């Protein structure tokens, strides 16, 4: 079971006590600025992380118009400007304001399932029945579930 790591959550993200849901409340919360916390982008990491094997998790999203889900390297940059790109150790797919990636805005709310095959370097995203595959080189690093919850 993937849960949200509240110690990594951007200050406008509120993680539920059971760590199963997260919401962008749009207002900064008073949280410690620890080294693992994202400080410029509304992101949060999940646990557990993986260094091998095949794994998957499913996310239900609501009316959020800007989001992304996938995996990030454990050493992903947490401070300063963050680009959601493989070069930044973030492999993701999502829905973006003004344009969308593999999602139909008419299918909001919906589900996304993320499949990881660590050894093969494959990530497969099933967004409401639309499949997308990303190739990745994790270089032996642990990867963690990654979530971006835009405005």
Textual characterization of the structure:
Residues 1-151 form the B30.2/SPRY domain. Keywords: Neurotoxin, Toxin. With 151 residues, the chain is an all-beta fold. The protein has a single domain, classed as Sandwich (Jelly Rolls). 0% of the residues lie in helices and 42% in strands. Strands 1-4-12-6-7-8 form a six-stranded antiparallel β-sheet, with no helix packed on it. A hairpin with a 4-residue loop joins strand 9 and strand 10. It is globular. The model is unreliable at 98-102 (pLDDT under 50).
What are the main properties of this structure?
0% helix, 151 residues, Jelly Rolls, four-stranded antiparallel β-sheet, globular, mainly beta, six-stranded antiparallel β-sheet
Q: TL;DR?
A:
The chain is mainly beta and 151 residues long. It has a single domain, classed as Jelly Rolls.
Overall residue-averaged pLDDT value: 90
- CATH topology type: Jelly Rolls
β-strand amount? 35-45%
| Unreliable residue runs | 98-102
In total, the number of strands is: 12
Write down the secondary-structure element order.
EEEEEEEEEEEE
CATH class: Mainly Beta
Dominant shape: globular
Characterize the largest beta sheet: strand count, sense, and whether it forms a barrel: 6 strands, antiparallel
Radius of gyration: 14 Å
How is the secondary structure organized here?
Elements: E1 3-4, E2 13-15, E3 22-24, E4 43-47, E5 54-61, E6 67-73, E7 90-96, E8 99-100, E9 110-117, E10 122-127, E11 130-135, E12 143-149
Antiparallel strand pairs: 1-4, 2-3, 4-12, 5-9, 6-7, 6-12, 7-8, 9-10, 10-11
